[in-house]
Amino acid sequence: MVKQPSLECLICKQIISNNNPDCETCGYPLHGTDHEKETFMVLRGNREIDLEEHDKQIRNLGRYLKVIGGFTAFWGLITYFLMAADDKDLIIPASSIVLGAVYFSLGIWSKKKPMAAVVTGLIVFVLANTVRFIFDPAAIGSGIIWKVFIIIAFIQGIRSAKEAEKIKKELYYV
Length: 174
Ligand SMILES: [Zn+2]
Prior knowledge:
Distance between the termini: 35 Å
Number of strands: 2
Strand order of the largest sheet: 1-2
Bound molecules: zinc ion
Helix content: 55-70%
Mean pLDDT: 91
Radius of gyration: 25 Å
Order of helices and strands: EEHHHH
Low-confidence stretches: none
Strand content: under 5%
């Protein structure tokens, strides 16, 4: 039996047997024409551009999370200072500051674990607004357009995080 020589794939650096027409890992046409190789590289380049676009969306969402965190904590402080001196109730200010810190931390965490951070952010946002609605049903209308925008941004962020994971698997085999 003749031992097939093996070679390293130019793209993914996997060792592949020379008798395969394409790399088994990344699909690079080892024995293809120059045109086929070029087409492969162009398609790969396009996927890299897609990945960059999704990463940008996630970075923006991370920034929004920090801004929402800042505003939520600030709102908690303002609420506290606006209360009458003899009627200071710590529950709303304290919970707003904690919630703001949670959003802010999720914004930082989204750099490392975008999917987990964005999903957690959406759950926390919906839960916090549900709790607020239960205690203060009149509050549902306040800032409703912003709330809808924020939920849409979270859902788009989840889609981007999912796509980015998929493309990274495709391109870098992680
Ligand atoms: Zn390969």
